[in-house]
Amino acid sequence: MTGVHRLLAPNPGPMTGPGTNTYLIVSGSDCVVVDPGPPVESHLRAILDAIGGLRLRGVLVTHTHPDHAPLAGPLAAESGVHTYGHAPGPGFAPSRRLRDGDRLRFGEAVLTAVHTPGHTADHLCFRMGATVFTGDHIIGGSTVLVQDMGDYFRSLDRIRALRPERLLPGHGNPMDNAAEAIAAYITHRREREAQILRAVRDGARTVGAVVDAVYGEVDPRLRSAAAESALAHLRHLAGQGTVSLENGAGPAETMAVRNTGIA
Ligand SMILES: [Zn+2]
């Protein structure tokens, strides 16, 4: 029998929604933990309580962001097991690195790593049968911040091609309508990119002006996230030749944008 338990880390906020989802996956008397979360003592105790008398076999992280990975080291040290992730990042380095397609067996369960760059270059999803643990690649109730939009589109296609039934995200609620949720993400990104291209063609000349035109009134706490997201789309468009971007010395919002006139 394999079961999944979700433990919510106490780190709600504008970028983390209700908080980080930590997953305890149990198969027989073995278990693994996915995304133990931020370094919060009470959360570490909650995870250890949930593990109880089970045998912890490994601690996995989807990516090295500070709301997902830092507790991996302390948790793994409690049981003398390895931490698993794609690559080292700020504040966390996995003791075992996973490449695309690598498998982890425990009890009767098999988890397969799926490299899904986009949100970050080091991002992994984990597939277990018809379920995919999506980390910050796809989250419940919101969109995610994207570092590389070309990679991100490819990684969304990658997960769609696996035809999962259920997505268990790093933030927000589980999604039992996986196909719909993935399609909605792809549609949203395509529409956003079209809006951004239109804004440039309508005269927006800086990344900041694009944000004003496309996002309108933004919660000031989310303004830099909106600028980063717009910039990721603009870089993607620049890669296709439809816009050009000029790197200035100042913040991203002041970067100059030009319509190349190429359709
Ligand atoms: Zn993240």
How would you characterize the overall build of this protein?
It is built from six helices and 13 strands. With 263 residues, it is α/β, with parallel strands linked by helices. The protein has two domains: 175 residues, Metallo-beta-lactamase, Chain A; 73 residues, Arc Repressor Mutant, subunit A, CATH 1.10.10. The protein has a six-stranded mixed sheet, with helices on one face. A hairpin with a 2-residue loop joins strand 9 and strand 10. It starts with a strand and ends with a strand. The mean pLDDT is 95. Zinc ion binds next to loops.
Give the SSE map.
Elements: E1 2-8, E2 21-27, E3 30-34, H1 41-51, E4 55-60, H2 72-79, E5 83-85, E6 96-97, E7 103-106, E8 109-115, E9 124-128, E10 131-135, H3 149-161, E11 166-169, H4 178-201, H5 207-215, H6 223-240, E12 243-246, E13 256-259
Helix pairs in contact: 3-4, 4-5, 4-6, 5-6
